[in-house]
Amino acid sequence: MNELFTGKGPRITIIGGGTGLSVVLRGLKKITDNLAAVVTMADDGGSSGMLREDLGMLPPGDIRSCLLAMADDEIEDDFESLMQYRFDEGTLKGQNMGNLIIAGLAKMTGSFEKGLELAHDIFRIRGRVIPVTCEEITLCARLDTGVIVRGESNIPKTVLAGEGHIETVYLEPENVRTLESARIAIQSADIIVIGPGSLYTSIIPNLLVGGVGEALTDSEALKIMVCNVMTQLGETDNFTPLDHIEEIRKYMKGSRLDYAFINNYTLDEMALVRYAKKGTRQVLMKPGEKQRIERMGIRVVEDDFIEVRMGYVRHDAEKIARKMLKIFDNRDLPLLRY
Question: What is the pTM of this model?
Answer without folding.
Answer: 0.91
